[in-house]
């Protein structure tokens, strides 16, 4: 950080008076406020077991996701099993303070690894029935051909390599999860839930399974009719939903997601157990689901209306907003997903990459465009001065964009442009309360500073 400060001080001296105000907006605030918001969200991951009904217990904070235990007549049912045996063993030990009955069934709400990797820790040598959807395993959908770059982006999104002083959290999960044994406790499902759903009794507990695509195509939600408890999986958590993950995903069907959550609201649960973050109890459980569904649908509808009006994804990403009556709902703050990312994903998912503007049909190659931008600025040095000014005035996004032009110019000080980009990334990170954005900015800055990235990426 010392290098950063020295660079920033140099730039301040080298440029003229402030010409551009500090820019906030979208998921950015003044740094102290942004950090306070993220620190407050940490309360959602306080480690412990929460009793949500007489026979239902949810373990929060033992890993990124939640795991739940339902106590029946002659055994227990486990819903989701965390990422690996070590975290799952700790949660299971906490559960066993409430019941020592054997595990009669395991249920996977969907196939993301943080919900499936620790099953063996709950079962020991026994092999109970394991329930999942017929489409189980289709959670990611991304081609294996891009697995190498997706792995790098995953590390950045979750801030896996950030130092303790840089880390806050992952929006809907703590930052310090133990992932060393990921997936080692996975037990394959042996009972498939049909698309029509299933109503059955396990260990004397009446339980209902409903297909509910959303964050994944293989998702379902679980309803306990007697206890009035609903397990949403990752279709609900206390944050605006991650309708697109910046690590890279195929299109998540936003409309189906909204419909699945609306279907959950029809049950009017007394308790809502999310895939991440703490359960919601009382009347708020139903209103939260209704609001969540409405928020997703509103972003979808506004985006579609804008598309049909001929607007570009860049324009729409800055225009679409949550309805006023939903903006301040605590479970819709953009800690994990964000409205701008959702808008871009919806646009691409419905129409592909092309925005319909012939100007963008065959844009200039980056080096050529950089030269043209420099010419407009009056030359390379003038463009560099504009970049320096943007950084000094804390107009970090503009500094980033200009640094990406400067890097292509012959005769430009590429090392200086790299340092400006690093400082701008850290400046943006300080303003972010969206955890994936913040983590990505900081991780990328660290990779640039350490020389891990090739000339292509910088």
TrEMBL record:
Sequence ranges of Polar residues compositional bias: 161-178
GO MF terms held by the record: linear primary-alkylsulfatase activity; protein dimerization activity
Location of region: Disordered: 161-190
Assigned keywords, A-Z: Signal
Domain of life of the organism encoding this protein: Bacteria
UniProt-recorded name of the protein: Metallo-beta-lactamase superfamily protein
Signal peptide (UniProt feature, chain positions): 1-24
All copies of domain Metallo-beta-lactamase, residue ranges: 64-276
Organism: Thalassoglobus neptunius
GO BP terms, alphabetized: dodecyl sulfate metabolic process
Pfam families from the UniProt entry: Alkyl_sulf_dimr, Lactamase_B
Listed PANTHER family: ALKYL/ARYL-SULFATASE, ALKYL_ARYL-SULFATASE BDS1
